[in-house]
Amino acid sequence: MHRYPFTNSIWRQHDTGTPYPSLSVSESTEVVVIGAGIAGLVCAYELQKRGRQVTLLEALEIGHGTTGHTTAKCSVQHGTIYHKLIRHFDESIARLYYEFNSEALVYLKNQIEEGFDCDYANEQSFLYSREPNEELTKELDAYRRLKIDGGEATEEVRKALPFSIEQALVIHDQAQFHPVKYLRELANRFVQHGGKIYENSRATEVSQGPRPVVTTSTGRRVQGNQVVIATHYPFNDLRGLYVSKFSVERSYIVACESGSRPLKGMYLEVGERKRSFRSYEENGKTYLLVGGEGHTAGQVTDTRSRYDRLEHDAQAHFETNRASYRWSSQDLITLDGLPYVGQMFKREPDLFVATGFSKWGMTNGIAAGTLLADQLTGRPNRFVNLVSPLRQTVKSSDISAFLKTNLDTATQFAKGTVDRLLERKNVKDLQLDESGVVQVDGKTSGVYRDLDNQCHVVNLTCTHLGCTVKWNNAERSWDCPCHGSRFDAKGNVLEGPATKPLSYSKREDL
Question: What region holds the Rieske domain (predicted)?
């Protein structure tokens, strides 16, 4: 039988960074940062440099989360966001968001000058469409109104891409890099300044009140003056109704070896297809990275076809080889398009959050980390109100997005119960490397038959809020269609907000 390749991020393949121990003894510190992605590590590094004692907890390993599964474009060109922000808010808010991310780029460039080694490259960033597109016309007008360093670039993109281009925009002097190398640089320097990192230490609870206590899945605790939750999706999302403030989208990336010259620039398509292109060079090889095929997380089972379509586009248009690497990423989209960074709850001044980067976590994450470091050390920061989680979230213009997000969640919750019955099959019909909903010992369960003919049985009820998880056939994972929690074939948590595994058993008699 044809064995579909397992997914593997190009950024994590040759990661030889320092492994850090898990938290084995409870301790006390000044600041606890939860999550060793880009926002958490920038925040921890900055705080430690400024004289705070910081303990950093990571549920898995550095680079395992969203930061290690991105296209790693460092750009202020976040799709067609600026005309939308002008319409939704006003020009001053749109300009402030531009400056929020622009300062993150400056911060990164300064680190490169300090000696950070992360394959940094200065590049132009382009938006393009293959057909007439009103969004690009509006965005071009927004560039002019906001005095953004960019503009019309149709002819330039027509020369660069091997298919018909109707319209294109550029923003100058942007960047791309290797995200895991960047995380490793931050981690190494953070530890050199006296910080502590604990990997495989999943936080499951944060107490309320002064000097909050973070409890891990093994029962160990860390107490701090302040706690920063930078876990992508906040695991304590039920308080403050954060669970109702996001939509969760999953998208896909392939890296295909190319015999031609690297593609100069970073490209994102506006329209139905939404393809993303950039090149990366490693060990004398040139790879074309193609991204796209996004959908609401957990609501697509045949994810292999998503990778296949991206690979086909790379081969058809750029004459690349088959994909050497395939990986996917999950993104949180907020109701108003701005991230949530700052004090998490109104009556808890010692608890902070960074989340909702809407696919643009490289610049938003750096900006979030520096903003939180400023807040925790008493430095003024002009972006505090812009991205405050305590801002009025559901405005009249947000109502439709709020209703759509929460109606979809309710629909998926109800649909899961029906699907358990409609999708149920006989376990004996499962082929190697195939999963299904089956009846095991009188209970409806999820079963994955691996390549060694071993069956892995899990409870299909998500441990977050009880939705029914669905199989993801490319990642070999169980994904929740309500809030995006993900579990491996043995029920272990891959991605929150869930903090507890699915109940699991290994069966050789099925």
Answer: 422-510
pLDDT at 150 over 90: yes
Asked whether residue 161 falls in the same domain as residue 281, the answer is yes
> Is 257 in the same domain as 163?
yes
| DSSP states of 302-359 | --HHHHHHHHHHHHHHH---SEEEEEEEEEEEESSS--EEEEEETTEEEEEEEE--TT
- CA dist 9 and 66 (Å) reads 11
Q: Which domain holds residue 202?
A: 27-69+180-237+337-393
Question: Which H or E element spans position 206?
Answer: strand 203-206
Instruction: Give the end-to-end CA distance of the chain in Å, rounded to a whole number.
Output: 20
What is the Cα–Cα distance from 445 to 426, expressed in whole angstroms? 11
Give dist(CA 48, CA 178) in Å, integer. 23
Check whether 129 has a pLDDT greater than 80.
yes
Report the alpha-carbon distance of residue 279 to residue 286 in Å, rounded.
Answer: 7
Task: Tell me if 100 is assigned to some domain.
Answer: no
Higher pLDDT, 273 or 128: 128
CA 437 to chain centre: 28
> Quick check: 463 and 498 in contact, CB under 8 A?
yes
Q: Of all residues in the chain, what percent carry a pLDDT higher than 70?
A: 92
Q: Are residues 215 and 257 in the same domain?
A: no
Q: Same domain for 359 and 483?
A: no
User: Looking at the predicted structure, is the pLDDT value of residue 100 above 60?
Assistant: yes
Report pLDDT for 418.
47
> Is 90 exceeded by the pLDDT of residue 219?
yes
Give the helix/strand (H/E) hosting 103: helix 91-114
Name the nearest CA neighbour of 405 among 239, 250, 246: 246
255 shares a domain with 233: no
Instruction: Supply the pTM of this predicted model.
Output: 0.91
Residue 10 lies in a domain: no
Model confidence pLDDT, tens digit, residues 405-428: 445 555 554 455 545 555 667 788
Query: Within a domain: residue 91?
Result: no
For the segment 253-268, the average pLDDT, to the nearest whole number, is 95
| CB neighbour list of residue 375: distance below 8 Å, 6 or more residues apart | 342, 343, 352, 381, 384
Contact (Cβ atoms closer than 8 angstroms) between residue 398 and residue 336: yes
Burial class (CB in 10 A: 0-12, 13-18, 19+), 275: buried
Nearest to 247 by CA among 137, 331, 128, 122: 331
